[in-house]
Each structure stands twice: as structure tokens, then as C-alpha cells.
Design a protein that fits this description.
Layout: H1 2-10, E1 13-16, H2 26-53, H3 60-88, E2 93-95, H4 96-129, H5 134-137, H6 140-166, E3 175-176, H7 183-189, H8 195-228, H9 233-261, H10 270-294, H11 297-311
Helix pairs in contact: 2-3, 2-10, 2-11, 3-4, 3-10, 4-6, 4-8, 4-9, 6-8, 8-9, 9-10
Protein name: Olfactory receptor 10K1
InterPro entries: GPCR_Rhodpsn, GPCR_Rhodpsn_7TM, Olfact_rcpt
Transmembrane segments: 28-53, 60-80, 100-122, 134-160, 196-218, 239-262, 274-294
Length: 315
């Protein structure tokens, strides 16, 4: 009875040890991460409000960009505030229920993000390879449907994965060597888990990462083939520059995610995972708005127009 009571107690909460080895730097990390987080929220707010308010940006490309910014805003909101609190707190814990909610929300937004990048690749493909039929093929209803499909896939994957992980028995330790409830650190705490559950989780990772990446690669093979047929060098440069931002974001997103979720469990390293996780939970959401929008001349012109309209509204 005593052992059962201890096991039940351990299941009530997890203790985060993600930055425990950097105890002397935690206040500095708090300031740095807080500034990055506030800047990320600000840039995403500018992107979303500008796209909503400026009619010139009411196109499929900017619609998907606004959705991507929403995903990243919610994504950071789920992870970063809790991490900031833990950097200053003596007791860095979260409840078992809170952990499962965090994992589900994080996976839902992350998986939806992966599928949305594939949708954006398809949008570029249609715009460059079928420009005459673009408005028909990428109408508003189609765009909303593609986003809904990405969210539905993300919801399904996150629900199945979270259910599999949190139905495992946790009886050894509640000390999580990470700063949030990611899959590998939580699985490491499980007293045992079947090969079937491991295989299902791995296959879901393949579905979320490999399949969208293959779709993006197919889209870009067709895009490059079409661009090389453009006689004008200016036209080729404009087409390539349109796709460059998306390719950069795809490389960073799928590179980090594949390293975390598609490697063998035997290669798991808590210190490496913490470092990579910081990059895609804090730095990538900061990096993406700058790559996609703030270096885009059309978008910067739209920001200026929106600022003028809101500062001096026409009666």
C-alpha cells in the first residue's frame, strides 16, 4: 500500500530540470527570453493586424502567413510564459493534467504548423506553375478548407500521441530533464512502454514531418522546372525570391523537428534536446516573421499605409 501511495504521489506533478545546470544564469536567461518573447508577440501582432486591415494583402499567400503567425503566437504563449516563471521560481513543477494539456496544445500547433507549410508550398506551386488559374484554384473557400485540413490533421495526431504517452505508468521519477512536456523526456520517465506505442508515436512523427516535406519537395521540383523556363532573368529572380523565405522557414522547422522526433530513442540526450528546443520554441518564432514579412517590400509598404490610415482615419 505504501509503494502504491508513493507511485500515485509521483504521478500528480512533474518537476522541470531543463535549466538546472545554468543556475547562475537563470536571471539573465529570463531577461533575454522575455525580450525575445515580447518582440515576437509584437512582430506577429503587426503581421496579423496589417494583413487584416490592408485590402492589398487579402491574397492566399498573406492569408496563410496570417494563420502561420497566429499558430506561432499561440505556440509561444503555451510554452514561454511557463518557462519564464520557472526561471525565477524555486519550485519548477506542473500538474499531471497541466502537463498533458501542454503537450496536447504544443503538438496540435506544431503539427498544424508542419501541414500549413506544405499548404504554403502548394500555394507557391499554383501561383508560379498555374498563374492563369490561380484565383480559381486558390479561392477563399479552398484556402479555408486547406487550413481546416491542416488543423484537423494536427488535432488528430496530437490527441492520439498525448493519449498514448499519458496512459503509460509513471512510477520511477517525476523529474523531467526539459523545460516543457515534450514527448521524449516524458517517455523517459515511464516505467515501461510497449514497442507498439513507441512504433505508433514514431509513425505519427513520420506522418507529420516526412509526408509534408515530401509534398513540399514535389512542389518545388515543379516550381524550379517552371522558373527555369522563364526567359527574363528579372522574372526568374522575382519568382525565386518569392519562394526563398518559405524555403528558409521549411529548412529550419523540419531540420530541428526531425532531429528531435525522428532519431532513435537510444540517441536521446537531454542537454542536446534542450538546446534544440530553445531554438524552435523561442528563436524560430522570432526568426520567421522577419524572414517572411519584415524584409518584404510589399509588406513594409502595407505597414506604412496601415499606420497612416489608423493615425489619420478618413471620416
Amino acid at each position: 500500500m505504501t509503494m502504491e501511495w508513493v507511485n500515485e504521489t509521483l504521478m500528480r506533478e512533474f518537476v522541470f530540470l531543463g535549466f538546472s545546470s545554468l543556475a547562475g544564469l537563470q536571471r539573465l536567461l529570463f531577461i533575454v527570453f522575455l525580450l525575445i518573447y515580447l518582440f515576437t508577440l509584437g512582430t506577429n501582432a503587426i503581421i496579423i493586424s496589417t494583413i487584416v486591415l490592408d485590402r492589398a494583402l487579402h491574397t492566399p499567400m498573406y492569408f496563410f502567413l496570417a494563420v502561420l503567425s497566429c499558430f506561432e503566437t499561440c505556440y509561444t504563449f503555451i510554452l514561454v510564459p511557463k518557462m519564464l516563471v520557472d526561471l525565477l521560481a524555486q519550485k519548477k513543477t506542473t500538474s499531471f493534467l497541466g502537463s498533458s494539456i501542454q503537450m496536447f496544445s504544443f503538438l496540435f500547433l506544431g503539427c498544424s504548423h508542419s501541414f500549413l507549410l506544405a499548404v504554403m508550398g502548394y500555394d507557391h506551386y499554383v501561383a508560379i506553375c498555374n498563374p492563369l488559374h490561380y484565383t480559381v484554384l486558390m479561392g477563399y473557400g479552398v484556402c479555408v478548407g486547406l487550413v481546416a485540413a491542416a488543423c484537423a490533421c494536427g488535432f488528430t495526431v496530437s490527441l492520439v500521441t498525448t493519449s498514448l504517452v499519458f496512459h503509460l505508468p509513471f512510477r520511477s521519477s517525476n523529474q523531467l530533464h526539459h523545460f516543457f512536456c515534450d514527448i521524449s523526456p516524458v517517455l523517459k520517465l515511464a516505467s515501461h512502454h510497449s514497442r507498439l506505442s513507441q512504433l505508433v508515436i514514431f509513425m505519427l512523427g513520420v506522418f507529420v514531418l516526412v509526408i509534408p516535406l515530401l509534398l513540399i519537395l514535389v512542389s518545388y521540383i515543379r516550381i524550379i522546372s517552371a522558373i527555369l523556363k522563364i526567359p527574363s532573368s528579372v522574372g526568374r529572380y522575382k519568382a525565386f525570391s518569392t519562394c526563398a523565405s518559405h524555403l528558409i522557414v521549411v529548412t529550419v522547422h523540419y531540420g530541428c523537428a526531425s532531429f528531435i522526433y525522428l532519431r532513435p530513442k537510444s540517441n536521446y540526450s537531454s542537454s542536446q534536446d534542450t538546446l534544440i528546443s530553445v531554438s524552435y520554441t523561442i528563436l524560430t518564432p522570432l526568426f520567421n516573421p522577419m524572414v517572411y514579412s519584415l524584409r518584404n517590400k510589399e509588406f513594409k509598404s502595407a505597414v506604412r499605409r496601415t499606420m497612416v490610415q489608423t493615425s489619420y482615419p478618413v471620416n
